[in-house]
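pasting for ref
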Amino acid sequence: MMSCVHKEKAIKAILIAALVAAIVLPLYNIFFIYPSFKRQLVQNIEDDAVRVAAHLSSMFTQTATELRKENLPHELIHMTEALKRDFKLMKLKVFSELGEVIYSTDPKDIGNINKYKYFHEIVAKGKVHSVVVKKGTLSLEGQKVTADVAETYVPIMRDGKFIGAFEIYYDITTRKQRFDALIKDYSCILFFVGIISIALIIFLFKANKDVIAEKERWDITFDSISDPIAIIDRNHRLVRVNKAMSDKLNISRDKAVGLKCYEAVHGKCEPILQCPHTKLLSDGQVHIEEVYEERLGGWYLVSVSPIHGAKGQVIGSVHIAYDISARKKAEEDLKQAYEKLTDKNKQLERFQNITVDRELRMIKLKEEINAFLEKSGEPKKYDISDKVEGTEEV
């Protein structure tokens, strides 16, 4: 029964863990893993863009305080082509402080003005700004892109003042495909984990139902026994009691569990002298004792049998109390009847002894009279042969 309880607790714990895994893992993937990977991808792109911008910024240190088409460095075209090749850039733009495109690897962009808030409220404040644009959607500047693109704006600062910005386009189709493949693989793993978790939940649910049914059958059997039964651990604590025991103790089973057996049963603060459970804990053997307990209302034949753990050690006992009050009363009645009969026999024996003694004296007297008459030549007066024979029989 104790293993049944432990099994039920273990199954419930596994069931809860499986439910948590089935619910949490997909949510973890959606709200943490995917955003984390995406942030890392964007961060890597930003780092590349900042390195590219650092190469280009060195050319603008000797220019005027404002960036204009007229004062762009002559080597800009050569350097941007090299950077475009080395860093696999899709496009590169240079903006003035006001957001005008003063240079672009795509000449059609030159002269356009960026009026969007992100440029004037983020980039112009000296902060890098990046966004991933999916293929077929619009870029930050409203242009439709033909590939998966990462747009990164890197401000150009001089003495802490914003004088312009680089916009660097990366074709991240390959990176994103790898990223999506990684997420797909991870999602598949989570999907299979979820399926396995659901299957495990179903299996454990059925197993738990079987355990509950087994426990209910055990409870019915346990409570159907009219003799008080308790499961007691090594510390004399009541682990479980049947209905008969809780009725005898006059407390509910829930309140009985956890109490010391000698407190609940005997009202003592320590085990009684003849406690069979104490003896069992010392030698691991079955013990039987007759105990009178006024709190339970009579005499009980108490038997304790050891409960062994997985390693064979004694972990408790099954305590059964058989009510032998009726038998004890019958024994007492029989004892009293025997004592009365013995007393009557003694009285009868004394009476018989007195009667026989009187009869013997009468016979002796008659024998003496017959002897005297015989000496006097007179016939015997008493015939005592039959009486003597009868007396001897007595």
